Amino acid sequence: MNKNEKPKSLKFQYLKADTYVTYHVDGVFGGITPKGMVHMDVFTEKFPTPSCVSHELTGEGKLGKEIDRVVRDGVIRELQAGMVMDLMTARQLRDWLSAKIDEAVKRRKPPESEL
After folding, report:
1. What is the pLDDT of residues 4-36, one digit of tens each?
2. Where on the tree of life does the source sit, at the highest rank (predicted)?
């Protein structure tokens, strides 16, 4: 290829950072930053883990039945990761998600109750 000729393709290499992690995502929360960027936090949902559990001790000194539990009310939304992007990237993410949703719907097998 000479200097004046434009390339006809571009290859992207995907490498995982040392800090790469896969998260299960139950939802997203976010908004627009003061600088107009789109901010989103992805979260998982779970019932609260008790902060303290008390058990009786048997006559042999073994753990017996549970007698007390201290636990928060409600559902925990544990934020896993935050992402900040410009509008162009947010649109690309939206379009990519829409395409993946369409693909997943096409591949979806009907539930046995619909057969």
Report:
1. 888 889 999 999 999 999 999 999 999 999 999
2. Bacteria
- Quote the CA–CA distance of 84 and 115 in Å, as a whole number: 43
Rounded to an integer, what distance in angstroms lies between the CA atom of residue 41 and that of residue 35? 17
Give CA–CA dist 110/107, Å, rounded. 9
pTM: 0.70
Please answer whether residues 32 and 56 qualify as being in contact, where contact means their C-beta atoms are separated by less than 8 angstroms.
no
| Nearby residues of 28 by Cβ (< 8 Å), 6 or more positions away | 40, 41, 42, 43
Q: Where are the beta strands (DSSP E) in 9-75?
A: 27-32, 38-46, 52-57, 63-70
Contact between 48 and 74 under an 8 Å Cβ cutoff? The reply is yes
Going by the DSSP 8-state scheme, the letter that residue 8 receives in this structure is S
Give the amino acid at 72: R
| Residue 94 identity | R
Q: What is the DSSP letter of 35?
A: T
